[in-house]
Design brief:
By secondary structure, this protein is mainly α. The chain has a domain at about 25-70. The chain is about 70% helix and about 0% strand. It has helices at about 5-20, 25-45, 45-70, 80-85. The chain is elongated, with a radius of gyration of 27 Å. The relative contact order is 0.05.
Length: about 90
């Protein structure tokens, strides 16, 4: 679900990335970091993909479990039966 708060965070991140990519030095640094990460993943191919999958899938599954978890029932009001009691003596 994309709520307003999540969309605001997404907009803030995109706004910051826009200004980071304006500068050629920061753009070269970010692209170099992604290139180095890609080379590292190719070098350690089977293990790096397993780690990447676990880093992405485990939080995703945890978030889905939290979203789909049933809501606990409302606790019963213990004083409700005394409000409707007919055998109470009134002054």
């Amino acid at each position: 679900m994309l709520t307003f708060a999540r969309m605001a965070y997404l907009g803030t991140i995109l706004f910051a990335l826009f200004f980071l990519f304006l500068s050629s030095k920061s753009r070269d640094f970010i692209l170099g970091a992604f290139s180095a990460a890609g080379d590292f993943m190719d070098k350690w191919a089977p293990y790096s993909y397993i780690v990447l999958a676990s880093v992405v899938l485990i939080p995703t599954l945890a978030a889905l479990v939290l979203i789909k978890w049933p809501q606990p029932p409302e606790p019963e009001n213990p004083m409700a039966r005394y409000k409707a009691a007919q055998d109470v003596l009134e002054d």
